Amino acid sequence: MPSKRGRKPSGKPRAARATASLPPEVYSTLQDIARQKKVSVAWVIRDAAERYINEQWPLLAESR
C-alpha cells in the first residue's frame, strides 16, 4: 500500500494562509523590493506585516 503524502509532524503549528488583492502598482513595488533583496514577494509581505504589528502594538512584540 502506498504511503500517504504530506508533511511530517514537526510539533509546530502550521502557518495560516491569507489572500489579499493588491493594486497593480503596489504589487509591482513589492516585486521590485523582493528582487532587490533576493527573496519572495511573500517574504516581503510577511516582513511588512510583522513590522506593522510591532509598530502598532509594541507590547505584543515583547511577548513573542
UniProtKB/TrEMBL annotation:
<feature type="compositionally biased region" description="Basic residues">
    <location>
        <begin position="1"/>
        <end position="15"/>
    </location>
</feature>
<protein>
    <submittedName>
        <fullName>Ribbon-helix-helix domain-containing protein</fullName>
    </submittedName>
</protein>
<dbReference type="Pfam" id="PF01402">
    <property type="entry name" value="RHH_1"/>
</dbReference>
<feature type="region of interest" description="Disordered">
    <location>
        <begin position="1"/>
        <end position="22"/>
    </location>
</feature>
<feature type="domain" description="Ribbon-helix-helix protein CopG">
    <location>
        <begin position="19"/>
        <end position="55"/>
    </location>
</feature>
<dbReference type="InterPro" id="IPR002145">
    <property type="entry name" value="CopG"/>
</dbReference>
